[in-house]
Give the backbone structure.
Amino acid sequence: MTSSSSPSGSVAAVPTAKRRRRRGFFDFVLVLALGYGVYAKTPIGAVVETGVRVARGQSDHPSWFSTFKGRETAVKAPVVDDATDTLMQGVLPKALTAAAALHKVDVDALAALVAVRGGCDAAGTCTLQAPDRLAWFAPGGKATVDVDVIAAALAKAAVELGSKNNELAIEALFTGPQALALAVDQGRKSKLEAPEDVEVHSPFLSPSTRRGPLQGALAVLLVHRLRTLAWPAAGFRITSPFGERIHPVTGLKSFHNGTDIGTPVGTTLHSVHNGIIKRASRDSISGNYVIVDHGLGVLTTYCHMDAFDVGEKQRITQSGVIGRSGATGRITGPHLHYILRINDKAVNAEEYGRSPTRTAGLLAPAVPEKPPEKKPEKAPEKKPKKPSDNAQDPDAAKPAALPGAAPPTPTPTPEPPTTTEAPAVP
Ligand SMILES: [Zn+2]
């Protein structure tokens, strides 16, 4: 019998009111917790979240099911805006190339960082907004830093991570090298095929890191990936560029969603970047085609191939052999129809990476690497399906290159495009 437990009637009123207020508060907390539980742990929350994303017009949202399964662990494809596009296509400012050379870091990694998070002025000074976790390198650092500071940070990240992987070094500027090294290590222990790929890190990073810093790294990584795309078949001329064109036969305007490269049948085709074979299939328009998923929303498609050496879900490295070019599908002459897509939108591949247009000189004059000797046996097999396709193909009327028989003539004057297009492929 303590004094508090034996109050007189008149005094008891106050604690009861207090108790009631306290209970009201606990109920409120309970309702909040329950609400959060429903939101975070049940499909209802996933549906709500997906609904919000759709309402906001976000096109790259994961399905509600994956939202439910792996909440916030998905790596979203960033968006390339026009400003980024322009910066990444121009000639690199001297300050940038000098900083890369001084610290012996990848110039494309540095350029991608500047393109996304900074810029260069007329005087040639390049500055950028410091990545989120740069503090590990420059404690008490400013929000805006010189490109030289970033180059030094990239070099240091490579040392700390013990890796020459440029994308990993970029990522470390955002997540911090310790957290990233741990994620890579855990990926290795989980026997992942590519533990250094940004796509697999999120489950191994803390929620706050994957929501903020990791997302910040993605746009830079996408630009870096685009800057370092190789060209699928070096040594051959472009017979028809990407974009609006007047159809050589119909005279009508049409949109060409890829770049035509005049490859003789049998030319070796290479994957333009690391990736996973998303599809290796054939249809009557694209012929034999391969789609490679390079991650972060970057896809490349190779059409009209003679044969492919890869299977779906197979991993391929940059410059790895996909197969040989050919003359399959709805075409009138052998060529490679090459499509580059970013976030489901076909773009002009000539404006990215190591395209012959950007690296002028990489593409030699139209001299085939080797004459295609073994062609005759290939020709008969593709004939049966051509007639029906050609019937609806305006270009088919044109007596063009003998299918499979001859390489594009090495005459310096390009004839009008002899190829018609595959609107091609999902
Ligand atoms: Zn084409």
About this structure: Residues 240, 256, 258, 260, 337, 419, 421 surround zinc ion (CB under 6 Å).
